[in-house]
Amino acid sequence: MRQANDLRNELRRIDRRGYGAYKDLKGAYGFPDYVLHIDRVQSDPFAPPSEARVVVEQARARLPRELFSTKSRRTGLEDYLTRAFGAACGRVRKGRRGSGKSGLIEMLPCGQEILERTSVEVSERVVEARFFIGLPAFGRTIAGAEAERMLLDEVPEIVGQSLFYGSLDGHAARCHVEMADDADFLRACLREQGLVTFVADGAVLPRESGVSDRPLGDTAVPFASPPSLRVNFDLPNRGGVAGMAIPQGITLIVGGGYHGKSTLLDAISLGVYNHIPGDGRELAVTCADAAKIRAEDGRSISEVDISPFISNLPFGQDTSAFTTPNASGSTSQAANIIEALEAGSRLLLIDEDTSATNFMIRDKRMQELVAKDKEPITPLIDTVRLLEQDLGVSTILVMGGSGDYFDVADRVIMLDSYHVTDVTPEAKRIAGAYASQRREESAKRFTDLRPRMPVAASFDPYRGRTVKIRPRGTRGIDFGTEHIDLSALEQLVDPAQSRAIGWLIHHAAQYIFDGETTLTQGLDRLNELLDARGLLAAVPGKSGDYARPRRWEIAGAINRLRTLRCAAG
Ligand code: ADP
Ligand code: MG
Predict the structure, then answer these.
(1) Smallest Cα–Cα separation from 342: which of 384, 303, 285, 385?
(2) Least distant ligand from the CA of 254
(3) What sign does the CA torsion over 60, 10, 155, 124 have?
(4) Is the overall model pTM greater than 0.85, yes or no?
(5) CB of 332 within 8 A of CB of 301?
(6) Closest ligand 1 atom, CA of 255?
(7) Which stretches of the chain drop beneath a pLDDT of 50?
């Protein structure tokens, strides 16, 4: 193998040559404490940066075994090291030194969630870190001396500060790992005990602002459970923790406007992920299969069986294989629920703020005026119980606007100036004293929803003769000549997840959807592959900028592909 000195000589040789000569750098170089791989070299200083990777033997990195002894812990440690490496890049790199991305050294940026990423991988034998380098140039002329400083001074310094246990903040690393471990433990307990979500006393749920995911500062009112819903857990690392546990069933969150209802529901919906220490939502944990549901008018729908919610459309349109390029509020919300169930969700989270009113409720007077046979929609108030009876699906619903829901709720919690109280007895008393007068409407059951089999040919990632799959933050993906709008997927939290989704659905179309595989089975197969072989098995290259998405967001992208066609089973 070539050594660090060979890299130095090579850089001196190509100094001041045309940018293309950087291609010669591809390959592996032995450094005293690690091996540096230059895997992909950018074609010019303005192109996406080059990909590099360092591999450190555990004999040198000396990461304590117990920090990666389980899946949860390993993910926590890898997340921590990604952040440590990224922070070291910020401290050490000199920054811009020439044209375009010259001088850049960076690792995948991270938000508040602890995610499975391709940036750092820890095994028994090695630690591998994948990062990006903007190989420097003036114009298109190689800046060899600058490159030498980057690859032979700055990168070794960054690696030294972030991948060796001796130079890490051991306490912080341990907290991070234990946080992930405790949260996963708690999530497993929920399932065993028939609970769907837990929010610890003291949790800080509100965020700094509408555009920042960091915790609100001093003015935040810490969460406190109502006594009737308080449960204690004994966590493996932190020990005892108390907080509000919501059981399976139908839960209503009520309260005046601006009293914190949506904030609580949002924290519950992001509780499918683990959060970093200091986030405030570390111990707001929700079962992994929760799906946030909203209305999304304008989306396309392809052959979804929305018949339990909607039937008798004008002109006899079929709602057991409902297709439209332009859904209404109610049809989109119905499709979003059916698709979440198809992907395996057993907990629906619905906020009145983002729901279609006619999907949620129809009152007595409206029932009188518009006869049932003129109204295609059976509102959620009449279907939410069937979801539970037929499929064991629980629902948590923010609903400040209609007390008719008291009749169907198992429990009602109220937010009052950010404090939660359990008002179930009061709500039930009121429901008894003032009959809602509305007639219950009957709906088709959820027991025989039509499975769908995506047709692989309807996924076309080509633009001209090249595959073009490009993420647009968390808002969407350009896929071939199509744009997939993901902005309504509120549980898609990281641009690195969208980047992965684009390639995962391409992978599924190439290798999984054969016309006989249902969407549900396809998602299972994809997840089995990711569990067994990791994300890099299904995305191109060995790049460090992917994060693992949940199956609901993968399905969400497939379902929003406007060219999607399905064969019904
Ligand atoms: P609602 O859905 O009941 O109308 P929101 O959840 O949107 O209310 O919250 C309204 C405002 O209060 C938001 O700006 C939110 O950040 C803030 N907020 C929510 N919960 C808390 C809390 N526990 N402490 C301080 N501010 C909060
Ligand atoms: Mg709200």
Answers:
(1) 303
(2) 1
(3) negative
(4) yes
(5) yes
(6) 3
(7) none
